[in-house]
User: Fold these one by one.
Assistant:
Number 1:
Amino acid sequence: MSASRAELFYELYDFYARYTEALDDGPLERWPEFFSEDCMYQIIPRDNYDRDLPVAIMRCESRDMIRDRVTAVNETMMYEPRYLRHHTTDIRIEETPGPDITVRANFSVIETLPDELPRILMSGRYLDRIVRSDDLGLQFKEKLCVFDSVLVPNSIVFPV
Amino acid sequence: MNKRATEASRLWPDAGNSQIPYWIYSDPDIFDKEMERIFCGSSWAYVGLAAELPEPGSFLTTNIGDRPVVICRNREGDLRGFVNRCAHRGVKFCRHRSGQTNRFTCPYHQWTYDLNGDLKGVPFMRGVNGQGGMPADFDPAANGLQQLKVIAHNGVLFASFDLDMTDFTSYLGESNRYYFERVFDGRELRLLGHSRQLIRGNWKLMFENIKDPYHASLLHVFLVTFGLFRADQQAQVKMDASGGHGLLISRKGEQKASEATQDIANLREDFKLKDPRLLDPVKEFKDSATVVMQTLWPNLIIQQQSNTIAMRQVQPRDPSSFILAWTFFGYADDDEAMTTRRLRQANLMSASGLVSCDDSEVIKLAQDGINSDVDGHALLEMGGRDTEDTEHMVTETAIRAFYKHYRAVMEL
């Protein structure tokens, strides 16, 4: 690994760590700031993704749509309070042409409900495209969260 | 957590369909009886879309109640269905969600069935070197898979354990047939994908939820905020003659405060979408209804909210949990813009639904509360105590009608 590549890897590692920290420790208003204005964010079952079926369980086609979901989670939706803990591992930079940085990584999310022990909510892989701007640093232009299988426990309230 | 009610408390409350005893949500004996009488009895259970079985040899696996089943097309392209359980030793032989095959072979001893469910191969049936094998009178023709009756109505597949089951259109009844064929008018469907939730509540709570317009105008602040479902809109609640099927029909209103919203504690009338493409509905059906939620006994909810259309299949697992299996679709002649619109509006639904997440959460909370009082009962008196159709939403009549039918089938 060249020095610049090692530097990029370290930078990405830090970016993903800050992303999961924002999701786990909040406030949720920090979540949209990791995305570019024209981003695409999806949580999609692997069974759909592998068969080219387009339905996602969460689909935001812009940073504003992500902000709308934050408002809904904070103001209109009803759910049991919970803590989430995201774990991102095996971050790998893919060789692709063009200026965007293409990254694959594994994720798992552990959920803790009141009066219950922690349980695995979801596991899957991130297929991400990241852009860099001078003033804003790294941002997700595309974040695709493909979770294994298709079944989830009860509800997925918060993003992955 | 399952609790057996004492014999003494197993009498249905005298009030009838407006009081629902809590033991029916947790008693394992009741659950077993429900599987036998409701799901494996004289009913048409939804099992999939014809679009999921495009050609001869296509198959899918699903559940009717807690029973695993296989639905397929045989060599001639005719629909077949059978229980996913080998006639030899009970193995759930088909392990794939869907696919394409010429035969089904059980992995344990390689007993092989054709696409009609007939037993075609038993390895070593005549023994090896003259030793062993099945008795001379073993008849493969009498040892096929347990058969289901399967039909397709305008692209939707239903199956029944009752091989003499009545025809589907008379099962639906007149008004439910009209609304069923409003969405399924014979046009080819385009499958958009699946999602599934394991919800920790009794399966009947799901039907109560969808048959309950009272909650929709209160719990679903998102719907009310954007005028998609409000207590002051023109609406109907309709049932079939049995009470088992139901319809909630309503029309989109405005985003404004009114008498119908003043009781909603956390209404956000100032919430404006930053990206309004999320809610950009276009009229696509012939009547003025913008939302029709149809519940078909015993396991199906057909959702049409704006341009998001989906099947929600209820698969009970045990007294306190069920899988809610969503199948989203559009029409084969949808243009790109309509497909994108459907995919955006799917944000309202399923596990992360801006609306339906409220339901999966509240169903779990309901089960958590019910479990602690097996001798108590729920109160269903909103809109009176009878089971008539209504022209408003401030009612629990469709839930009472559901229990009228439930009690008849269960003899409770």
Number 2:
Amino acid sequence: MTIEVALFYVFALVAVLGALGLLLNFRNLVAGAICLVATMVSLGAIYVLLGAYFLAAVQIMVYAGAIVVVFLFVIMLLNIRTDVFTPSQQLLFKIFGILIAGFVLFQFLTAIAGGLPAFPTTPDGFGGYRDIAGALFARGDAREGTQVVGDFILPFEIASLLLLAAIVGSVVLAKRRLE
Amino acid sequence: MLTGVIVKIAFVFAMIMGLFAPLMTWVERKQSAVMQDRIGANRADIAGITLLGLLHPLTDVIKLITKEDVVPLGANRLLHLISPLLAVVPALISFAVIPFGGTYQLGEGTYNLVVADCDWGVLYLFAIGSIAAYGTILSGWASNNNWSLLGSLRGSAQMISYEVCMGLSLVGVMMVFGTLKLSEMSHAQDTTFRLLGFLELFGWVSVLPWWVDWIRVPNWGIFLQPLGCIMFLTAIMAENKRPPFDQPEGESEIIAGYFTEYSGMRFGLFYTAEFVEVVVIAGIMTAIFLGGWSIPYLSTQTIIDGVSSVIGTSIATILCIVLHVLTFWIKVCFMIWVQMGLRWLLPRFRYDQLMDLCWKNMLPLSLANIVVTALILLWIDGMAR
């Protein structure tokens, strides 16, 4: 077993344990968020092992660094206590969670059993996922990364416009509640 | 290969944890004393020898290790115990991508004086910097103390906000050097450029006297991106939460902020993290803006060509390596001195001023910096064609 394979198993184990910790933990929201961080950082490490360095850095920067920090910030600011959910509500969450997780697991298992499907090809101009994935997973070749903002400039700009609209919308909604 | 990496890690770790971190407490106390016309730390002695107060770091460490390690009742025990480590580890591993020397040909092999020479070095720094916030957030939450929670809320908001400015203020320098690799950035700064060369853009070549070509400036990030340099230093100092950006600690309002409930060496770890981060900030500033390991007006090739005829190429290369590593650490010491000076020179910000500085001043300025830099680069590119 090479050192890469050994590291892969270590990080895969941490990622799975973190995900399980997040799922099976109803009492403590902060501990759940920390489990999520462990999963995200391990996924970033697995991307490094795959040679997708850019994706690894973005994974850690955006998911582990920014999004979960905002989760934690909101949890602390709202001061959600451990007894916020009644036992009956907790049971309901558990049943829903098991149903959704079972559905996703079934989908994954059927997909893996039948061989992974090819990336869907889409018309030119809206860029196939395959090309974007190729650009992101590119092994050390920075020029392929420029495709994301070169050939796919239109989807890129549309996504940023959508985000801007979401920001403006949230500001308008928050203001209305103040008055 | 592996031995080389281990030697480099050992060197960097020894420099930071063995030399800089212990000395920093002494430097901070002595520098503040000099700036405030006091004598400063001078009491700790062994048989009457005080060594200018240099024994104080030793006594501090002995005191911190022997103190009782208190975990408050009602605290989340596990998170309370691990969060000092979450603060100190990101600070230590950031130094992996900072080059403390160039790339050298010595005999058969090529030697590269950086622990991890990754293409995505700057992104690595941002990624590690973004997970550094967990130490602050979790320590405050896990302590089960209102002051701690206030401190960690302040800390997380401050760190998220200044991360944005920190990233955007570096985009300009990334565009100028055209790389995210810190060793390539340092290498690109090993030359000079003509100070008045920009006049060629206006077509004024013929009116200039011949000696204008001799007025040259080192090709350093601070001269190419002065605004980006100042904003990056501000943002990364705010990330480190030291005065004048010490709102999360807020001694006069919230006791000691997020580490109020810590004692002994766990409290010491938060301080170690701050001091290590001061060294890391100095290293990043040196590598990106102050020319890294390069000696101004004396490029690597000039040194090797100049002395190799006298002492041979291999000894000249070794001399070059020693000079470059020394230059790097001298520049790091200078940046540490600047940070310590700013810490005692400037008054603290109020929290709304802190946020205003980030979102209302630095964010628009850094965006404008990116646009202006891009336009100038396009212009130069157009002239070259």
